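Whiteboard transcription, Tuesday session. T.W. wrote the C-alpha cells on the left side:
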C-alpha cells in the first residue's frame, strides 16, 4: 500500500516552481489537470502547453504520442534511443508555462523489449517526474515492476472497457497486476471507461485510493456506451470529485476530453470540462 508519506513524495517529486509562476488549478483542495491527449488535434506540444495555460490548468499528464516521431516506422528505434536532451527541454517548456508535468503516459506492451521498457523510466526521469501512467498489457507488469523498483518511479495502469484478455478493464485485472508487486505498481483510474464497463468508480476510489496514482475525468454511458460531454453520461463525476475534496486524497483529476467529433474546438471543450469540475466542487 502507498503510505501518506509516499503521497507527499508524489506532490514533491516535480521540480519546484516559484509560487507566483505556477498556475493554480487546485479547486477546494482538488488538483484538476489534463491528460494532454485531450489536445491531440493541436499541431504541437507547444500548442498544447499554450492551450493549458490559456484554460488555466496547472497539472499535466503528458501523452507519449505528442513527443514521439510522427513516422510510426521510426518509433521502435526512437523508443530504444530517445533524444534525452530534447525530452528535458519539454519539461522546461512546461515549467516555463507554470504547469506541473505530473506524470508521463508511456504505455508498456508485451512486445516491448526490456530496453524499451527501461527507456520509458529514463524518459520519465528526464521529464522530472516519478510517475508513469500506462495503457498496458496486464502480463507486462512483472517486467515493468522490476524497473519501477530500480528507478523508484510509480506506474499507474490505465483501464478501458474492452473486456479483452490481458487488457485492464475490471478490478480483477488490477488485482492480478498488483499481486506480488512492489509499492511502485499502481492504478490510473479512468472513471468513464470504468462506468462503461459496469463498475462504480466512487466505491472503487474509496476502497483503493491508496493505490490510485491519477484519475481520468470523462463521462460515458453504461453498457459500453459512448463518450459524452461531462454531465450527460452515467459516470458519477461529482461523487468522485466530492471524495477527493472531503477526504483530501492527493490524487489529481485529469480531464481527458474524448467525446469530440471532427471540427470541434478541443480547447473550448476542455474549458467546458474544467468549468464542469469547478461547478461540481462548489
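and on the right, the sequence the group agreed on:
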Amino acid at each position: 500500500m502507498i503510505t501518506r508519506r509516499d503521497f507527499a513524495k508524489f506532490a514533491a517529486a516535480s521540480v519546484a516552481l516559484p509560487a507566483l509562476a505556477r498556475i493554480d488549478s487546485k479547486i477546494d483542495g482538488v488538483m484538476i489537470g489534463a491528460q494532454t491527449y485531450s489536445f491531440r488535434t493541436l499541431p504541437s506540444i507547444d500548442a498544447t502547453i499554450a492551450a493549458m495555460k490559456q484554460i488555466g490548468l496547472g497539472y499535466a499528464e503528458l501523452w507519449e504520442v505528442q513527443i514521439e516521431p510522427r513516422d510510426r516506422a521510426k518509433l521502435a528505434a526512437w523508443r530504444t534511443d530517445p533524444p534525452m536532451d530534447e525530452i528535458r527541454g519539454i519539461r522546461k517548456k512546461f515549467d516555463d508555462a507554470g504547469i506541473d508535468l505530473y506524470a508521463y503516459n508511456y504505455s508498456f506492451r508485451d512486445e516491448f523489449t526490456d530496453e524499451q521498457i527501461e527507456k520509458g523510466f529514463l524518459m520519465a526521469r528526464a521529464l522530472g517526474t516519478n510517475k508513469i501512467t500506462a495503457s498496458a498489457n496486464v502480463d507486462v507488469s512483472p517486467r515493468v515492476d522490476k524497473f519501477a523498483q530500480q528507478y523508484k518511479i510509480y506506474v499507474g495502469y490505465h483501464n478501458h472497457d474492452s473486456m479483452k484478455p490481458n487488457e485492464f478493464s475490471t478490478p480483477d485485472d488490477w488485482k492480478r497486476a498488483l499481486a506480488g508487486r512492489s509499492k511502485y505498481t499502481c492504478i490510473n483510474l479512468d472513471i468513464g471507461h470504468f462506468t462503461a464497463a459496469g463498475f462504480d468508480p466512487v466505491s472503487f476510489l474509496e476502497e483503493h485510493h491508496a493505490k490510485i496514482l491519477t484519475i481520468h475525468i470523462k463521462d460515458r454511458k453504461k453498457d459500453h456506451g459512448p463518450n459524452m460531454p461531462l454531465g450527460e453520461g452515467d459516470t458519477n463525476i461529482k461523487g468522485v470529485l466530492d471524495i477527493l475534496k472531503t477526504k483530501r486524497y492527493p490524487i489529481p483529476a485529469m480531464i481527458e476530453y474524448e467525446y469530440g467529433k471532427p471540427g470541434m474546438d478541443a480547447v473550448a471543450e476542455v474549458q467546458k470540462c474544467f468549468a464542469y469540475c469547478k461547478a461540481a466542487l462548489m
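Someone added at the bottom: The first strand starts at residue 26 and ends at 27.
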